[in-house]
Amino acid sequence: MPRRYRSNDEDSGRWLEFPFRDGDIVISTRSKSGTTWMQMICALLIFRTAELPAPIGTLSPWLDWEVTALPALLARLDAQPHRRFVKTHTPLDGVVIDPRATYIVVGRHPLDMATSLYHQGNNVNRKRLRELLGQPEPAEPPKPRPDLHQWLLKWIDTDAAPDAAMDSLPGVMWHLSDAWARRAEPNVVLVHYQDLSDDLEGEMRRIAERLDLDPPTPELVAAATFGRMRAKAADASPDPGGVLLDPAAFFRGGRSGDGRAALTGAEVDHYYERTATMAPADLLDWLHRTEIR
Q: pTM for the complete prediction?
């Protein structure tokens, strides 16, 4: 039985109701780790055109997100005639592993992921999200958010169970550790965000090969760039419910190194000391790209 992960708007238990079919693709990432980028890459490789037939959030729905009623979502997926590619922020031990499906997990330096997550928090219309979830308004206004530096320091030192706080540092490291332990399985593909940044065409070719799809054309590679996605933010951003205040701001920058730049050298070293207790050394070498520290 898969482990159950829940948040205020997600429930991984919904995967128990999902009927797999041959060729399904499950994109499993932590928040702000390249989810939408990988959805776009899969869409381009499947449809073979930069002019996609529908927004990414429609083509590749977020199965765990409770904003959409599960029966309606499953009916929509069942009606899709193309090869399906489904989004989740759940680690692989929380989804059903089906031999007919391929599971793509994207890793990103956690400090950069956390920095993007912090900025994303300023771009969420929380009133709209509560409306979609049927949640009441809070009795008191929220406290002001700390600045990025203070927020990152707290994020680094927070201890939380991964299934209770998936975007915490322990949650991020568990998500990646679980995938790393499965990396030799024939239907599990690990992708590094930095590799997408450094060699988008090469990574798209590797992903296409693992998915048994034709390699990308130069036009498809160009359509998967950050700039092109930002230019088409209304269709490329994962926001079918209108939760984002600014869809273009969802593609804020995507730069590597922002998280480390926000901290002192001693604070970065403390981060590396913390993560050394949470994951195997070979995963940390792959994830952190220690040669650029």
A: 0.88
